[in-house]
Design brief:
Helix content: 40-55%
Bound molecules: S-adenosylmethionine
CATH architecture of the largest domain: 3-Layer(aba) Sandwich
CATH superfamily of the largest domain: Vaccinia Virus protein VP39
Distance between the termini: 33 Å
Shape: globular
Strand order of the largest sheet: 1-2-10-13-7-6-3-4-5
Structural class: alpha/beta
Order of helices and strands: EEHEHEHHHHHHHEEHHHHEEEHEEEE
Strand content: 15-25%
Radius of gyration: 22 Å
Number of strands: 13
Number of helices: 14
CATH class of the largest domain: Alpha Beta
Length: 418
């Protein structure tokens, strides 16, 4: 069956639609191929939402833009966009994916990198190694020398679009050539038996990323429309979001599922790359993220009160962490709602995660929070996640190997101002 009502009382409002699974879709077209990141939105979701609710020449906002999937799609569709994220690494990636760079300039700088790499014979020229916590725990000596060499070459690139482009390929190279376990969000080292045979070819990895991303960039530059796109480092729970020329007409976003401690540790995922590149706050992102700070407040919206009370009866500390996240999510929705146009549409892609066996209906929370700002619930489409870039398991605690199955479904919540 392609279409199935989920809520029998309101069958037209919440339904599963298999067409939104995009099972066989190519999720790496254009600049979407640039860099992996946990829990990325797939471009096809943003594309279809733009097709339905977008306005050419209007403004789109993504208050948790990550690597910029919805912003790239807005540029391809013909909407101006603004994205916010507290993580400097993803802002660098998103900015690079949205570039209007000159391809010949990028090619010229990439060619110089290839020539420099091919000039290295046995000994790698000595380059400054940045201050990275536990450097030799995460990288072999030969890898450190090569990464430092690449880093010094990239830092000397004058054209900022070319430099960002190469930083993005460098960032994935750092991750792939480190001793981290690649299937985890958190920083865990490879087990000793795998370390012995781990001998990554740093230059080959980097070249491969550059070539792949160059192809994606060429497709993107040929297809993007002449629109503005900005990526800003704002905390969307606190800031008054940057206003566009007019108020925003459309929001397409996927907020975090919960606090970074117990769900997706975006900061840990980004940390080594961010330290190598020299980005600020490399070790602080998870504390700055939604739900990262303790609070004595409660969300005003009571749609989660019963679920949180059930969790509190089992584990009071977990209930506090969950509460802190939803207080932030509500604050962020208040902040977003203030800068939307009178006829705006908001599309939130959220998962209803389970804590202590109790499901948290985040989709209903989003609907109620926007209702207080005059938004009506249009519908919630439930989709399976066949190709979301998340491992099938994640670690809900900090204990290696202590895993739980992640969500297999997510909800696309659409509300419109009446
Ligand atoms: C699910 S990811 C977004 C992924 C994105 N849609 C993509 O395709 O790459 C959620 C993002 O929210 C960001 N984030 C967490 N707390 C935030 C806050 N208070 N303000 C802005 N961004 C925040 C995280 O850094 C993370 O990049």
């Amino acid at each position: 069956m392609l279409w199935q009502a989920i809520d029998v009382h309101r069958p037209t409002l919440k339904y599963q639609d298999r067409a939104w699974d995009f099972r066989t879709a190519d999720t790496k077209e254009f600049t979407h191929c640039f860099h992996a990141y946990p829990a990325m939105m797939i471009p096809q979701i943003a594309r279809e939402l733009l097709r339905r609710y977008g306005q050419k020449g209007g403004w789109l906002l993504d208050p948790y833009c990550g690597t910029g999937t919805s912003l790239v799609e807005a540029s391809l569709f013909g909407m101006h966009s603004v994205g916010c994220d507290i993580n400097p690494l993803v802002r660098l990636i998103a900015t690079s994916k949205l570039t209007s760079a000159s391809l010949p300039a990028v090619d010229h700088n990439v060619r110089k990198l290839h020539i420099a790499m091919s000039g290295v014979k046995r000994t790698v020229p000595t380059s400054t190694v940045p201050d990275i916590t536990n450097l030799t725990f995460w990288f072999a000596d030969g890898v450190i020398a090569r990464l430092a060499f690449l880093r010094s070459l990239i830092r000397s690139i004058k054209d900022s679009a070319s430099r960002n482009f190469t930083w993005v390929a460098f960032s994935e190279t750092v991750r792939e050539s480190s001793y981290t376990r690649k299937g985890e969000f958190k920083l865990y080292r490879l087990p000793p038996q795998r370390l012995k045979n781990f001998n990554p070819d740093v230059f080959a990895i980097f070249s491969k990323k550059l070539n792949r991303n160059r192809q994606g960039l060429a497709h993107y530059l040929a297809a993007r429309k002449e629109v503005k796109a900005n990526v800003v480092g704002l905390d969307s729970t606190q800031a008054i979001l940057p206003s566009s020329a007019n108020a925003y007409d459309l929001v397409i976003t996927s907020p975090p599922y919960g606090d970074s401690q117990t769900t997706v540790a975006y900061g840990q995922y980004s940390r080594l790359s961010a330290e190598w590149i020299g980005l600020p706050q490399a070790r602080k992102i998870d504390r700055l993220a939604m739900g990262g700070r303790r609070t004595t407040q409660q969300p005003h919206n009571s749609s989660l009160t019963p679920a949180i009370a059930q969790i509190a009866a089992i584990d009071a500390k977990r209930a506090e962490q969950v509460t802190a996240f939803y207080v932030d999510l509500e604050r962020s929705i208040d902040s977003v709602a203030t800068c939307l146009s009178p006829r705006a549409t908001v599309c939130y892609i959220v998962g209803n995660r389970r804590v202590k066996g109790i499901t948290l209906p985040t989709d209903e929370f989003v609907v109620s929070a926007f209702a207080t700002h005059g938004f009506a619930h249009k519908h919630t489409i439930v989709r399976s996640i066949p190709n979301k870039r998340m491992p099938a398991k994640n670690s809900p605690s900090n204990i290696v190997g202590n895993t739980a199955t992640t969500m297999h479904r997510e909800n696309i919540v659409v509300c419109q101002r009446e």
